[in-house]
């Protein structure tokens, strides 16, 4: 658990230094809005889950300035009962050209565990599902202190098979040595 906390702290530190994951084609592009929800919001309580799928050319499992979005990736929101593990909800969505997805889920899932995950990369240059970032946990209840119905999931993604030669310099810039 301490290792996970350290990785998250490192991720947020690096994200604040390098900024958001940018497109390989246009690193200066302004951020675009997430695509329209994959399913229309039903009457009653619903949650909008938004996130990003990216490729990690450095195989370090967090975004760097050379990470890039993976468009047309199928993402799956799965909720399951805490005790039995029985699936209670499954909704699929797809990333847009910026690697962004948006999924609407109805109902309160206070007693369930919900994760957004990826399973297969559409990018042949970035085929490997990350060990640590192939899924992102999201809380789909309003009974935990989180206000509003929009949930921002942590970035999830894939890795290249061979480390990009630029990674050594990039990681040294942010204080990570020995890679």
From TrEMBL:
<keyword id="KW-1015">Disulfide bond</keyword>
<comment type="similarity">
    <text>Belongs to the Ole e I family.</text>
</comment>
<keyword id="KW-0732">Signal</keyword>
<protein>
    <submittedName>
        <fullName>Olee1-like protein</fullName>
    </submittedName>
</protein>
<dbReference type="Pfam" id="PF01190">
    <property type="entry name" value="Pollen_Ole_e_1"/>
</dbReference>
<dbReference type="GO" id="GO:0005615">
    <property type="term" value="C:extracellular space"/>
</dbReference>
<dbReference type="InterPro" id="IPR006041">
    <property type="entry name" value="Pollen_Ole_e1_allergen"/>
</dbReference>
<feature type="signal peptide">
    <location>
        <begin position="1"/>
        <end position="23"/>
    </location>
</feature>
<dbReference type="InterPro" id="IPR006040">
    <property type="entry name" value="Allergen_Ole_e_I_CS"/>
</dbReference>
């Amino acid at each position: 658990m301490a290792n996970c906390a350290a990785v998250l702290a490192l991720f947020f530190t690096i994200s604040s230094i390098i900024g958001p994951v940018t497109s390989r084609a246009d690193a200066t592009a302004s951020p675009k809005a997430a695509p329209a929800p994959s399913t229309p919001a039903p009457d009653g309580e619903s949650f909008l889950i938004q996130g990003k799928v990216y490729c990690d050319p450095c195989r370090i499992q967090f975004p760097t300035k050379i990470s890039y979005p993976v468009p047309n990736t199928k993402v799956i929101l799965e909720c399951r009962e805490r005790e039995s593990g029985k699936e209670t909800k499954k909704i699929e969505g797809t990333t847009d050209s910026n690697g962004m997805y948006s999924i609407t889920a109805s109902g309160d899932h206070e007693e369930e565990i919900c994760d957004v995950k990826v399973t297969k990369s559409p990018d042949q240059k970035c085929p490997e599902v990350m060990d640590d970032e192939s899924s992102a946990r999201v809380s789909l209840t309003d009974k935990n202190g989180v206000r509003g119905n929009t949930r921002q999931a942590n970035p999830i993604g894939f890795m290249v098979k061979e480390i990009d030669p630029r990674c050594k310099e990039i990681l040294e810039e942010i204080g990570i040595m020995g890679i």
